[in-house]
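quick q for whoever's on today - can somebody do inverse folding on this one?? i tried earlier but teh output was garbage lol. tokens:
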């Protein structure tokens, strides 16, 4: 119980209530002492009234009056004259004098604590104002034993009352905390445990119902987190299924492409000029497809392999991509342009960079052909001291808003009907593996431009590649 929230709250409540009672205890005892001394002054004044009439009283009666007043003698000051009204033998020396006429609260509390901690019986003198203005002052000499016993008795009663109040208050607060905080928190914990057992089950997502504002906000945040996690798990499951399917397809497709590769070797022996010109490109395309299948580089795998970096002639790589796309346009009114220095070399994995450029150019080509109108696709590259920059620009219709929101998210960033939404996601991952960035520069009714930035320094590459 001591480890529970309600148990610790109960202990803290008891401690704080007791602390408050202790802070009240000292002023209360000081006030009790003051009232006790004032009552003795009042009794002494009443006892002295018998002598103020001028009548003689016997020693026995005087002793009885002083005993009832619990004092040794009484001095009354009237009309500037100080008069000993009642007296009896004092058993010891007067050790202290207390003037209650102008005593402040700190003085009263100090005197009260001194009396509590001093167990020795002493004789003290007390001065105060007579009641009902019956003189200028009244002074008595009295013992401290009865005063201290009365203060101790009063203190114990205050402490027991404090214990009772703190126990009752703590019990009420304990029940309130359990009802308002502990039970709702336990409900949230039970729901989290239930959700953890089957996070893919949307029925287990929490529905906020707490009445306390802070707890309700926590439940709403938890609901948003669980909803997002469930969606991510479903997407991961789809990716895992896709990875398994790709692995199977890759095995059979590799065998088919290997056979096709053997056939293309014979095509290179043909005397037809067109065949001689196209055969090397066909061989290169099939070789890339075989390599892709062998390494199962589909997005369904957990991650792409690390790039094999080397200095690559970019103009040759881009020319290969554009030559392949020219074959796919047929008689369509679509042109390609390249603005790349012939000597420009970039540090990259040639196969992976080829895939990225092919994805971007092919997406642009498909977007323009879908409009039924002509257009242009251009590839531009430059370098500075820190990086190489490649831009792929088209004059197509631009990307729809929905595609822009999740452009690089698999299965949700597709830019055309029937697409899986994987091309740009794969491309972005491959460029990140190079330590670079793939970003959308602009897209509107006049066209779209993507930018690839590859760093020149290995220091910038390593953290991103990791």
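ok took a stab at it. sequence:
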């Amino acid at each position: 119980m001591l480890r529970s929230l309600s148990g610790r709250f109960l202990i803290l409540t008891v401690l704080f209530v007791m602390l408050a009672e202790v802070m009240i205890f000292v002023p209360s005892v000081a006030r009790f002492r003051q009232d006790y001394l004032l009552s003795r002054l009042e009794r002494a004044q009443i006892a002295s009234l018998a002598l103020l009439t001028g009548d003689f009283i016997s020693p026995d009666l005087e002793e009885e009056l002083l005993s009832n007043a619990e004092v040794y003698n009484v001095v009354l000051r009237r009309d500037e004259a100080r008069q000993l009204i009642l007296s009896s033998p004092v058993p010891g020396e007067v050790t202290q004098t207390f003037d209650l006429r102008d005593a402040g609260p700190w003085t009263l509390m100090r005197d009260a604590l001194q009396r509590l901690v001093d167990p020795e019986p002493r004789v003290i003198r007390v001065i105060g104002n007579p009641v009902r203005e019956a003189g200028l002052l009244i002074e008595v000499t009295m013992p401290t034993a009865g005063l201290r016993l009365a203060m101790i008795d009063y203190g114990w009663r205050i402490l027991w009352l404090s214990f009772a109040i703190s126990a009752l208050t703590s019990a009420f607060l304990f029940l309130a905390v359990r009802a308002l905080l502990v039970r709702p928190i336990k409900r949230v914990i039970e729901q989290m445990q239930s959700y953890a057992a089957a996070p893919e089950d949307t029925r287990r997502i929490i529905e906020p119902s707490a009445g306390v504002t802070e707890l309700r906000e926590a439940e709403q945040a938890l609901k948003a987190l669980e909803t997002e996690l469930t969606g991510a798990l479903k997407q991961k499951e789809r990716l895992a299924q896709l990875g398994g399917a790709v692995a199977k397809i890759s095995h059979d497709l590799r065998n088919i492409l290997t056979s096709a590769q053997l056939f293309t070797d014979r095509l290179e022996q043909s005397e037809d000029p067109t065949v001689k010109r196209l055969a090397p490109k066909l061989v290169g395309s099939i070789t890339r497809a075989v390599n892709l299948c062998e390494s199962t580089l589909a997005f369904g795998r957990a991650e792409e392999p690390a790039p094999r970096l080397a200095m690559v002639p970019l103009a040759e790589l881009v020319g290969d991509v554009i030559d392949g796309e020219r074959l796919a346009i047929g008689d369509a009114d679509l042109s390609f342009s390249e603005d790349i220095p012939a000597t420009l070399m970039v540090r990259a994995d040639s196969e992976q960079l080829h895939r990225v450029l092919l994805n971007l150019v092919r997406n642009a080509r498909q977007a323009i052909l879908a409009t039924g109108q002509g257009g242009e696709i251009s590839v531009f590259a430059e370098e500075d001291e820190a990086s190489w920059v490649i831009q792929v620009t088209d004059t197509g219709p631009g990307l729809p808003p929905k595609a822009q929101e999740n452009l690089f998210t698999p299965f949700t960033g597709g830019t055309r009907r029937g697409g899986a939404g994987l091309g740009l996601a794969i491309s972005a991952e491959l460029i990140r593996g190079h330590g670079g960035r793939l970003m959308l520069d602009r897209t509107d009714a006049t066209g779209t431009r993507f930018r690839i930035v590859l760093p020149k320094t290995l220091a910038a590459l390593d953290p991103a590649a990791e």
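fwiw Residues 5-170 form one domain. also The chain has a mean pLDDT of 80. so keep that in mind when u check it
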